[in-house]
């Protein structure tokens, strides 16, 4: 018999009686998985791509960010539906549908994507430690091995408490960037103009590359796999159609609200980069933002070291918290595709050890120059974007199949829309490659 996805948390959170309790009590009970997924949309990869997009093109790429988050909402809803209605995650569902060689190839591709996700956390955490404690980047990179202990510490409290911790982290980061953007005094009218589409996104190669990085940082393969499993953490009767529909309803609300929060954080980052650095100095790396927040010529006379420290603190929080979700997603992929189960600390150590090899090699090649070192984050996002079609096409196909989902299968219009979104991302990838 096939094991349940993330068996230690599957069905571990009780929910109120569908027939008796009030809306808000139910909503709070179902809220949480969306926060764990949303934090993956706010990792250091998002930071650098959003800040770089803002510094180079001011607010023009806000439309790319908005479209990306709308597509993400659509795809996460399909992932939720798969998990809730079948009690099977996406990796398990794909593994049932393909032969062994294809399954192994997809597993390897997704492992590379997981490592690209982990890479952004390593680089972001190392940079944050460098800015706060002046630790050399190589020392910061090696110290990230210890975040295995952080993951174990959080997992010890159970999934519900992890969800609350992550939610507090999201709110903290959101408040920090709201304050910092307000201090930067952006032009509101120009921000609104950034949501108007323009053709330069497709015709300008540099702008297209940054746009693709934003897409890769916003819609990530590991979040799709993760949500299909976390949606099963609530304890409901999958044989009761009313309970299934209610679980779907509240899980989607949970996802929508937290993804809106993720969009706002990323929009604030892009606006911060566009306000501080467009025509005021080139944004080379995260350290430029750190010191820019101290510079009275950029932020104004009220700038203080507190603002730069808050920025660095937020970077450290997101780097550490995102390690939890990447660990869980990596376990889902390994279990689902090749049916190998490792304790989460071993899975975390394996992923981190393999990720550190290319990081250290590239680091020595560029002499740990921070500007070049952080470019790994940008290209990691492009790798994630290239891996996306191999996750999204199967997701759309499976959720559109009555064989898998029965009465819950996507209607034809939703399947067509899913293929359209995935095809657009694939075409953008090809444009960049050629």
From TrEMBL:
UniProt membrane topology term: Multi-pass membrane protein
Annotated localization: Membrane
InterPro entries: NRAMP_fam
GO function term, MF aspect, one: manganese ion transmembrane transporter activity
Main location: membrane
Domain of life per record: Bacteria
A single cellular component GO annotation: plasma membrane
Family matches, as PANTHER family: NATURAL RESISTANCE-ASSOCIATED MACROPHAGE PROTEIN 2, SOLUTE CARRIER PROTEIN FAMILY 11 MEMBER
Protein name: Mn2+ Fe2+ transporter
Naturally occurring in which organism (per UniProt): Lactobacillus kalixensis DSM 16043
């Amino acid at each position: 018999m096939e094991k349940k996805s993330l068996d230690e948390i599957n069905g571990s959170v009780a929910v109120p009686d569908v027939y008796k309790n009030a809306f808000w009590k139910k909503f709070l009970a179902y809220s949480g998985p969306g926060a764990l997924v949303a934090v993956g949309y706010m990792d250091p990869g998002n930071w650098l791509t959003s800040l770089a997009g803002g510094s180079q093109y001011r607010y023009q790429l806000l439309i790319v960010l908005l479209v990306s988050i709308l597509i993400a909402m659509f795809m996460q809803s399909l992932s939720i539906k798969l998990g809730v209605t079948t009690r099977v995650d996406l990796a398990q569902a794909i593994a049932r549908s393909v032969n062994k060689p294809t399954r192994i190839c997809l597993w390897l591709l997704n492992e590379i994507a997981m490592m690209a996700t982990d890479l952004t956390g390593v680089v972001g955490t190392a940079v944050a430690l460098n800015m706060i404690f002046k630790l050399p980047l190589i020392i910061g990179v090696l110290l990230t091995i210890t975040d295995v202990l952080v993951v174990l510490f959080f997992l010890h409290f159970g999934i519900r408490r992890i969800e609350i911790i992550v939610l507090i982290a999201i709110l903290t980061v959101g408040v920090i960037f709201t304050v910092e953007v307000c201090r930067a005094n952006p032009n509101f009218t120009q921000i609104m103009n950034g949501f108007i589409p323009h053709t330069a996104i497709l015709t300008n190669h540099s702008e297209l590359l940054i746009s693709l990085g934003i897409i890769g940082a916003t819609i990530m393969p590991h979040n799709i796999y993760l949500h299909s499993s976390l949606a099963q953490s609530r304890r409901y009767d999958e044989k009761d159609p009313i309970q299934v529909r209610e679980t779907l309803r509240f899980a989607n609300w949970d996802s929508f609200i937290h993804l809106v929060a993720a969009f706002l954080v990323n929009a604030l980052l892009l606006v911060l980069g566009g306000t501080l650095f467009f025509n005021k100095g080139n944004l080379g790396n995260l350290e430029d933002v750190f010191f820019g927040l101290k510079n009275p010529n950029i932020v104004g006379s009220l700038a203080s070291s507190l603002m730069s420290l808050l920025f660095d603190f937020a970077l450290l929080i997101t780097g550490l918290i995102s390690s939890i979700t990447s660990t869980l997603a990596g376990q889902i992929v390994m279990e689902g595709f090749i049916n190998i189960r490792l304790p989460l600390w071993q899975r975390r150590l394996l992923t981190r050890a393999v990720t550190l090899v290319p990081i250290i090699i590239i680091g020595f090649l560029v002499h740990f120059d921070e500007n070049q070192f952080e470019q790994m984050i940008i290209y990691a996002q492009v790798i994630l974007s290239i891996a996306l079609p191999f996750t999204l096409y199967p997701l759309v196909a499976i959720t559109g199949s009555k064989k898998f989902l029965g009465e819950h299968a996507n209607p034809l219009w939703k399947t067509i829309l899913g293929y359209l979104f995935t095809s657009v991302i694939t075409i953008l990838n090809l444009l960049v490659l050629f």
